Amino acid sequence: MPKADYAVFEALNPFFEIIQKGLSGLVDGEHYFDTIADDAFFEFRYHFPGWPLTIRGRANLIASFSGYGKTIKLHSGDALVVHRSQDNRVVILEYEVHGKILSTGISYDNRFISVVTIEKRRSCIGETTWTPWLLGRR
């Protein structure tokens, strides 16, 4: 995907950037989506209305994120902790993102843990969980 096409995801840049920082030196690609293998598999260990529990393929992941910036605008990502697994292909990332829910103006603060399996310098398997109690904090 050309860089210009990533402009529609600008509201999520802090999310993409914190993950890129955590995977620095381990994956190739300038943008988060560039680091994802075409046949990647993602599993989300939480139930969020309208969000799938699994996503197969890079193109489907990109499509899933396509409307996100219409509801949430992130302004920062932080609290990154990187854990290397005994399996050199696996990295565990802990991080937070912060922003606003556009329809209400309420703060959006969320903490995630992502388990990423890397093959051929691309993310091929991802599993993410989150702590929903941070959502909607004023």
General description of the model:
By secondary structure, the protein is mainly beta. It contains 2 helices and 6 strands. It has helices spanning 13-22, 58-65, and strands at residues 36-44, 54-56, 72-84, 90-101, 107-119, 122-131. Strands 2-1-6-5-4-3 form a 6-stranded mixed beta sheet, with helices on one face. The longest helix has 10 residues, at 13-22. The radius of gyration is 14 Å and the shape is globular. The model is unreliable at 133-138 (pLDDT under 50).
Summary?
This protein is 13% helix and 43% strand.
Keywords:
single chain, 138 residues, mainly beta, 2 helices, 13% helix, 43% strand, globular, disordered C terminus
What is the CA-CA span between the terminal residues? 36 Å
Mean pLDDT: 86
Order of helices and strands: HEEHEEEE
Shape: globular
- Compute the gyration radius: what is it? 14 Å
- The number of helical segments is 2
What is the strand arrangement across the widest sheet? 2-1-6-5-4-3
- Report helical residue fraction: 10-25%
Q: Please report the total strand number as a whole number.
A: 6
**What structural class is derived from the secondary structure elements?**
mainly beta
Oligomer: single chain
Please state roughly what percent of the residues sit in beta strands, choosing from under 5%, 5-15%, 15-25%, 25-35%, 35-45% or over 45%.
35-45%
Q: Which stretches are low in confidence, meaning pLDDT under 50 for 5 or more residues running?
A: 133-138
Reported for the largest beta sheet, the result is: 6 strands, mixed
